[in-house]
Description:
The chain is of the alpha+beta class and 262 residues long. The protein has two domains: 7-169, DNA ligase/mRNA capping enzyme (D-amino Acid Aminotransferase, Chain A, domain 1, 2-Layer Sandwich), CATH 3.30.470; 173-258, CATH 2.40.50.140. The chain is 15% helix and 35% strand. A six-stranded mixed sheet has the order 5-4-3-6-7-8. Strands 1-11-10-2-9 form a five-stranded mixed sheet.
Amino acid sequence: MHRGVMLAHNWKDELDPTGWWMSEKLDGVRAYWDGRQLLSRNNNVFHAPGWFTAGLPKDHLDGELWIARGRFAETSGIVRRHDEDEGWREMGYLLFDAPEVKGPFEKRLAWLEKLKSPSCAVIPQIPCGGQRQLDSYLRNIERAGGEGVMMRRPGSPYERSRSHNLLKVKTFVDSEARVLGYEGGQGKNAGVVGALVCSALGYKGPKVTIRKGVQFKVGTGLTDEQRRHPPKKGSIITFRCQEVTDSGAPRFPSFVGARDYE
Length: 262
């Protein structure tokens, strides 16, 4: 069991990114290695195969289980299952921190880069030269189908809480909602779920605010399998949008995934 993981705040445009560390924000599943097993941020066990974890150290690691850009739903489906081998052959454990190594981020990063395991690799960290470089880096990642950029303050410690030393930069918003029910599909989706009826958990960012409790529907982004077997009522999902309506509801939301693995 871990004592909590470091979580990010949103980037604020008035900040100067010069000197901060940039890395791609991966659309995978957060995973904490406690020296014995892989855990979600809420301490649920991921049943990874023994061959996958065999090369990991007894030290604690923080990273992301990830297959590729745009395959979050597949990744989260694999980690939820208890059949240990299926799907893990494509999985990688991408590391971004070493929680119990004392010292600034640069020392922890240097320690990570000395690890040797076939299942894991260190996410490249790039020193930012200024706002123009950050904008270009973000634009290139999003054009390639990536999610965004993570920014780490130089010299910062590992904190087991949400921290202003770790910030996420995106041109769209990821937020969460609770599933209230379902709307039947039409046309090619007749007989299955057309959309999830949801209640927003609320989000306040520098440019977008989603009102807590506002109801909306999410149909875009659901796979055929998810339409046949949708997330259960009461479960929490992640959705993505760029804008909100005047009532504070997400406009053109897209389903990202269910969060029941956490």
